[in-house]
């Protein structure tokens, strides 16, 4: 908790903004362009408390020095060495889904504490992107993740990798991470594993991975795992499994 203008305010209830400059105590910084609209909705004025973070760790108490429709600025007051990361490092390798499903998955998995997201182009992926469209889509996804960090309080931004094909992804070394392949016909669930320090979770597209893709994944050490008797949609499955992993092995 910190005090601004003689009023105590809980950091968790103060608006948070990601900035692309390094916040230094005493400096006055420009907030993102869209922050002006957000401040207007919340009816924030000069002197009101905000929190800024640059994604490198920690957050900074600040106060607005300008809040207008054209520009929003804040003076950095002090740094708080505060992180809200899970002790379980989770990499989510998600085959690309269509429509807003990917945005929803990215937003909620960030809230659930994943460390890294790898978008996968698989044989059955409905969305097929050109190189230019793929770059724009990844840039959009990174903005979705940043916005989710602003909302949920994370100060370290999960990495969103560039889109890669499944074969290339599987060829990368996994280290000592527990590699799991979500599969509704697997024999067992998460409880059969000893608590790991890191997990790589591979989730297929609508319709699942093609048979040869599944064989390739299993050949690279991915262990099939089921999550109950029901078949979950591609945007629901990773969220349910990540929440369960956090409950079993993480910070829940």
Please, what is the average pLDDT? 89
- Strand segment count: 14
- CATH T-level fold name of the largest domain: Alpha/beta knot
Amount of helix: 25-40%
Structural class: alpha/beta
Number of domains: 2
CATH class of the largest domain: Alpha Beta
- Quaternary organization: single chain
Distance between the termini: 23 Å
CATH superfamily of the largest domain: SPOUT methyltransferase, trefoil knot domain
Concise synopsis of the structure shown:
Helix content is 27%, strand content 26%. The protein is built from six helices and 14 strands. β1 and β2 form a beta hairpin.
Based on the model shown, name its key terms.
Ribosomal Protein L25, Chain P, Alpha/beta knot, five-stranded mixed β-sheet, 6 helices, disordered N terminus
Q: Can you walk through the features of this model?
A:
This protein starts with a strand and ends with a helix. The chain contains six helices and 14 strands. The chain has two domains: 2-80, Ribosomal Protein L25, Chain P (Beta Barrel); 89-249, SPOUT methyltransferase, trefoil knot domain (Alpha/beta knot, 3-Layer(aba) Sandwich). The chain has 252 residues and is α/β, with parallel strands linked by helices. A hairpin with a 2-residue loop joins strand 1 and strand 2 (7-9). The longest helix is centred in the middle third of the chain and has 22 residues, at 131-152. Helix 2 runs parallel beside helix 3. The strands form three sheets. Strands 8, 9, 10, 11, 12, 13 and 14 form a seven-stranded parallel β-sheet that branches. It has a five-stranded mixed β-sheet with strand order 3-5-6-7-4.
């Amino acid at each position: 908790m910190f005090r601004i203008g003689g009023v105590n305010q809980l950091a968790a209830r103060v608006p948070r903004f990601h900035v692309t400059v390094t916040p230094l105590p005493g400096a006055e910084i420009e907030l993102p362009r869209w922050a002006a609209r957000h401040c207007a909705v919340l009816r924030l004025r000069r002197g009101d408390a905000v929190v800024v973070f640059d994604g490198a760790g920690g957050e900074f108490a600040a106060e607005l020095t300008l809040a207008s429709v054209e520009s929003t600025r804040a003076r950095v007051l002090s740094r708080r060495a505060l992180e809200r990361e899970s002790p379980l490092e989770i990499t989510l390798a998600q085959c690309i889904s269509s429509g807003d499903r990917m945005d929803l998955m990215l937003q909620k998995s960030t809230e659930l504490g994943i460390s890294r997201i790898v978008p996968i182009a698989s044989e059955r992926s409905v969305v097929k992107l050109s190189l230019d469209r793929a770059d724009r889509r990844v840039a959009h996804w990174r903005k979705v993740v940043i916005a989710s960090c602003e909302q949920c309080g994370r100060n370290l931004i999960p990495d969103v990798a560039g889109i890669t094909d499944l074969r290339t992804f599987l060829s990368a070394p996994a280290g000592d991470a527990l590699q799991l392949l979500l599969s509704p016909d697997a024999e067992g669930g998460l409880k059969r594993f000893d608590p790991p320090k890191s997990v790589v979770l591979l989730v297929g597209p609508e319709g699942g991975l093609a048979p040869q893709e599944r064989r390739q994944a299993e050949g690279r050490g991915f262990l099939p795992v089921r999550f109950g008797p029901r078949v979950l949609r591609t945007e629901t499955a990773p969220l349910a499994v990540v929440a369960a992993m956090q409950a079993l092995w993480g910070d829940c």
